[in-house]
Automatic annotation (TrEMBL):
Gene3D superfamilies tied to this protein: Nucleoside phosphorylase domain
Family as reported in the entry's similarity comment: Belongs to the PNP/UDP phosphorylase family.
Species of provenance: Propioniciclava flava
InterPro entries assigned to the protein according to its UniProt record, in alphabetical order: Nucleoside_phosphorylase_CS, Nucleoside_phosphorylase_d, Nucleoside_phosphorylase_sf
Keyword Glycosyltransferase: yes
Alphabetical list of SUPFAM superfamilies matching this protein: Purine and uridine phosphorylases
Name of the gene encoding the protein in the UniProt record: deoD
One Gene Ontology term from the biological process aspect of the record: purine nucleoside catabolic process
Name this protein carries in UniProt: Uridine phosphorylase
Molecular function in Gene Ontology: purine-nucleoside phosphorylase activity; uridine phosphorylase activity
Catalytic function, reaction form: uridine + phosphate = alpha-D-ribose 1-phosphate + uracil
Keyword annotations: Glycosyltransferase, Transferase
Cytoplasm recorded as keyword: no
Limits of the Nucleoside phosphorylase domain: 16-229
Pfam family, one: PNP_UDP_1
Amino acid sequence: MATPHIAAEPGQIAPLVMMPGDPRRADRIAKDYLADAQQVSQVRGITVWTGTYEGTPMSVMGSGMGIPSISIYATELYRFYGVRRIVRVGTCGGMASSVKVGDTVIGTCAHTNASLSTLLVPGVNLSWAASYPMLRGAMDAAQALTDAPVHAGPVYSSDLFYLGRADIVQGLTALGTLGVEMEAAGLYAAAAQEGAEALTVLTVSDHLVDGSNDMTAQERETLYATSVKVGAAALLA
């Protein structure tokens, strides 16, 4: 049975899903990394591909931008398609001095200014964390990579892209936050609500502090090999 946002039939989406934000990146990942990839859904420009990765069924789907968008897709995948694990494979802006453009960041947890942290349990600011088994699998894979710097720590999921608040960046960086993006908290919240698992693995595409050159749009679309390898390992852990 299709949902309002996914047209696949039951059984056409694998229990393990890799989810970049950009639908074009999803198409490219599916074609480059999945064997026998087949498109099983296309709604509002968001395609879903299913194939196998190292012999294990796996799907790839775009999430769009922002917490509301990824929350819709992740919830429908978990609730209606039997998906058990989702790894977000996206980009982030670096914040910490130890993180450089081109590095990979594994989001152990996600701070956010979004209201979802206070909506679910009255009077409580909820924390959003990654699945530990997936995190462990990602870290094991990262340790095996000798030519790709990988960092693990908190990320910040912002509801506003053009916020322009240096005090927020400074405060979060002082507390060990590695980078800023717009989806991880929504994914982690959906996983918590649905009793499922999630992880975020990000390529640093620009840096908010050190003045490094930003990746081009083409580079954002294609320079994700480390994130895909680490993310796939997390799904398979």
